[in-house]
Amino acid sequence: MSDVHRSIAHVIVLLQRPSDGRVLTVRHQPHSWHSPGLLTVGGGKLEACESFDEGAARELAEEVGIRIAPDQLEFCQLAHLHAAEGERVVGAVFLARSWRGEPYNREPGIHTELVWVCPVCPRTLDR
User: Fold this and answer.
1) Distance (Å, rounded) from C-alpha 59 to C-alpha 70?
2) What are residue 81's DSSP bridge partners?
3) How many other CB atoms are there within 10 angstroms of residue 1's CB atom?
4) Three-state secondary-structure class, residue 16
5) What is the DSSP letter of 106?
6) Dihedral-angle region of residue 50 (phi above 0 means left; psi in -120 to 50 means alpha; beta otherwise)
7) Helix (H, G, I), strand (E, B) or coil at 73
8) Are 65 and 58 in contact (CB under 8 A)?
9) Quick check: 3 pLDDT over 80?
């Protein structure tokens, strides 16, 4: 198959706090090549032979230290886009409302902080 028909598989996870509906985001380091200083939700590329839900659970453990069974993730959407670098990306978006553990920044070299945001008013966020 030619590269023109290949897409990189990503997962995106919205971790929603049941008590107030806020969604967990991570702020990238200001020197990051990807979204410097901006808030993003958890996620990343799939590993070889990994399903979308397995990858989503792994990414949450790696980035914010929580545990969630893949079957606890609610599939929301599939997105197909072109990344800034010109790569084609297929991203599966999941929602999680329950998990084990307290989220914390497991990747301080990549993220500066965790921020719970209101999903209906994201414009009010400062850089």
Assistant:
1) 11
2) 89
3) 5
4) strand
5) S
6) beta
7) coil
8) no
9) no
Residue 2, pLDDT above cutoff 80: no
- The residue extents of the domains of the chain are 3-124
Distances 75 to 27, 35, 52, 79, 98 between C-alpha atoms, Å: 24, 25, 10, 12, 14
Residue length, the chain? Answer: 127
- Is 3 or 62 the better-scoring residue by pLDDT? 62
The neighbouring-strand residues paired with 15 are: 96
Residues 36-79: pLDDT tens digits?
889 999 999 999 999 999 999 999 999 999 999 999 999 999 98
The single residue listed with the structure tokens 């967990």 is 24
Fold classification of 3-124 (topology level): Nucleoside Triphosphate Pyrophosphohydrolase (3.90.79)
Structure tokens at 37: 């200083």
Which pLDDT band, with edges at 50, 70 and 90, does 1 fall under?
Answer: very low
- Structure-token pair, residue 83: 């990344």
